[in-house]
Amino acid sequence: MTNDPNAGDGADVDPADLAGRVANGDLRLHELEAHTDHETAAAARRLLVERETDADLDAVGEYSFDAADAEPNIENMIGAVGVPVGIVGPVSVAGGAVEGEKYLPLATTEGALLASVNRGCSVLRQSGGASARVLKSRMTRAPVFRVSGVAEAEAVLSWVGEHTEELKTTAEETTSHGELKEVTPYVVGDSVFLRFGFDTKDAMGMNMATIASQAACDLVEEETPAELVALSGNLCTDKKPAAINAIEGRGRSVTADVEIDRDRLEDRLHTTPEAIDEINTRKNLVGSAKAASLGFNAQAANVIAAAFLATGQDSAQIVEGANTITTTEVREEGETLYASVSLASLEVGTVGGGTKLPTQAEGLDVIGVRGGGDPPGSNADALAEVISVGVLAGELSLLGALASRHLSSAHEQLGR
Fold first, then answer.
1. What is the largest CA-CA distance in the chain?
2. Which residue of 69, 96, 330, 331 is 20 to 30 Å from 358, comparing CA positions?
3. DSSP string covering 127-172, please?
4. How many other C-beta atoms are found inside a 10 Å radius of the C-beta of residue 43?
5. Which of 87-96, 155-164, 186-195, 406-415 has the lowest mean pLDDT?
6. For 269-302, what is each residue's pLDDT tens digit?
7. H/E element, 326
8. Active site residues
């Protein structure tokens, strides 16, 4: 129902009238839902934008969900963007949280990507599948405090070290699921950073960690000379390239690996273990080191981005997911190739955020990880493991294409 006494029922409000009121300054864009239903508000914004920009927003206005359901995910909604979704697999995953044949939905506008990843999945499937394990799960938030100098900084660190359990109790009072696992201090002059690490179970957990960290910070301010300057001091580090995430991890730290016979590489990828190993060393390791890259891989972000879009993850956190190292080794006197991907900071969840939107929820259903897991955290772990195997498939396929010199011809053949 509307909150505007002059508007009547929301369904009876003319979007053109609302657009005119915004244009005249009587209403602001973000106030429309207070005067009508969410669908009409979105339609009014589309009309306003069309009038002021000469854009045609008919396609943006066609979407499959109730606009009211998207309220937690967007402000000033005008519609939705459609991204093509495809499927790769199935591929056998032997993980700590998932076992068996799995498809992976990928949403992208990059032609040839799914064909490449699917080729890698085929190689993995014929090799008996891939193993995957989540080795660490920590969502971090690192507030920064002001102190007078290094003596006060030492006092703050001493108090934190002696009262970690008290900080843990205070932080966990704000959440029914999250657990504070560690507090790591850093000092730079008169700045003190406390990097809180939380197990957020099946949630990606950024909001959970933020709220819990605020409660812990209040306690630190009460009990020490430290004064909170910012709840995020960028040592977390969220949505930016950072060595600390590549080293210490953030979200899920997950690794996948496989061993592939020479005959299968020659038959499916038209190359050899030695050729792939050399390209991985010279390109992914040496080339990345020379570029001072934080990611030592061929195309990990491609698969992570497409999986994030298809399953409702925070797309800005793809940057952390690109902290991936691809390794290869020729084994068994040249008869097999060992290949692995280690994703230090894959930030995923199966509850909250964009996972509640209908198409993204369907993507999670394809993998079988929608909602909370039993035990808590197992669904998000399973999602991380399946994505890591998809990344491994993409790495193998691209390295094979480079080794056989088929990369440009594949794009040309697919018309991309």
1. 82
2. 96
3. TT-EEEEEEEEEEEE--EEE-SSHHHHHHHHHHHHH-HHHHHHHHH
4. 24
5. 406-415
6. 999 999 999 999 999 999 999 999 999 999 999 9
7. strand 324-331
8. 110, 314, 411
